[in-house]
Amino acid sequence: MNFDAPLPFSQRVLELSRQAQRDIAGQFASIDAIAEYNTRKVLSAFQNHRVAESYFAGTTGYGYDDQGRDELEKIYAEIFGAEDALVRLQFVNGTHAIASTLYGALKTGDILVSAVGAPYDTLLSVIGVTGSEPGSLKDYGIGYRQVDIRDNAPDKAGLAEAVEDPRVKAVLSQRSKGYSTRSTLSVAEIGELPAIVKAHTPNAAVIVDNCYGEFVETLEPTQVGADLIVGSLIKNPGGGLAPMGGYVAGRHDLVEAAAMRLTVPGIGRECGATLGYNRQLYQGLFLAPHTVAQAVKTAVFGARLMELMGYETEPRSNETRHDIIQMISLNRPEAVVKFCKGIQSGSPVDSYVTPLPWDMPGYEDQVIMAAGAFIQGASIELSADAPKRPPYTVYLQGGLTYESGKTGLMLAAEELLKES
Ligand SMILES: *Cc1c(COP(=O)(O)O)cnc(C)c1O
């Protein structure tokens, strides 16, 4: 039987892909082992909280007394080793969840420190580094300091110096590289920062942007000293099924403060109807460790395939993973468009469209995005994006199934070969 049919691949791509698969085969056992451990972590939390059919019934209107929602928050807290959690569809995206925690943790006259270089692009206008929209942290008189990455690692001495100030009330770090070129930080590396912060400014909240990191390792930042982690449900923890939303997990007072900013002071977490989506949030969380493993395998395959084609990758295909992002340096804007076109053509949805760079809200440069996803913009689904700026690096992530992720990458390889 010809397993390469029915999509038409060239002999060259079939050979490269077989070679890539052989080269990475040894890594799959450890990815599977992490998925197995994390699946048990999730399963045991479901059992401890006696998940039952009745939890899936949703609320409407104000959303008072939503048992499924409230229990899901306790389950997130347990899985992430946190005191408390807020898991809400009303977070429009990860940026909104992170911003809510910052507004909750900071007041006029306080200072926010970003510990590992510039935060994710969309947070720049929230902080007030870029843009002049009303309502930024800067607009409310909250100061900002940034400790840049040094030699591809957190600058611990620089951090100690930056937080030596009683006005520093929150320190933001970020696990994934985002659109920067630094390496993603491991949970162990993220875990070295809280002690430095606490030694100088015990009252500062250590907040970690956990986007793309959930379930890639067996521990989360809240289990190694972070006060709070925040992420998006249309990435890792939604398992591909959550239709929207975000989560915050960590210290109870910080979670409460974020809830007051998500809704309003006095109402906080009491309101927020789930409209019948609890089932997807539960089932998505149940699948998440497995889905994340599929995405990690896709990233490893993508790295190896592109290395065989002569491109630089970060991380390299044989490196241990700390998030689901794969960076590939394509060097030329045309190659980025070709790559994204190939990924798009391998998607289950909108496979016939050609992605082009556009002005995305919250981003400084134009961004090209290949995303043929069931959930709009869900980057736990196979997707590739690139800000239109040198060095023309594409960020690949997701893949609900390894089989489809691999197929998308083979189609991207076809497009790249056509170019030469
Ligand atoms: C995706 C992401 C965010 C949030 O982005 P949204 O599109 O608003 O969900 C924040 N930080 C990092 C590192 C991310 O990857």
Write a structural description:
The chain has 420 residues and is an alpha/beta fold. The mean pLDDT is 96. The chain contains 12 helices and 12 strands. The longest helix is centred in the C-terminal third of the chain and has 31 residues, at 278-308. Residues 93-95, 120, 122, 174, 176, 178, 209, 211-212, 232 line the site of pyridoxal-5'-phosphate (PLP).
Concise overview:
This protein has 420 residues and is α/β, with parallel strands linked by helices.
Largest sheet: 7 strands, mixed
Q: How many helix segments?
A: 12
Tell me which ligands are bound. Answer: pyridoxal-5'-phosphate
Give the percentage of residues in beta strands.
Answer: 5-15%
State the order of secondary-structure elements, H for helix, E for strand: HHHEHEHEHEHHEEEHHEEHEEEH
Secondary structure: number of strands? 12
Which outline best applies?
A: globular
Structural class: alpha/beta
Taking the alpha carbons of the first and last residues, their distance comes to: 31 Å
Please tell me how large the radius of gyration is: 21 Å
Lateral strand order in the biggest sheet:
1-7-6-5-4-2-3
Any low-confidence stretches, pLDDT <50, length ≥5?
none
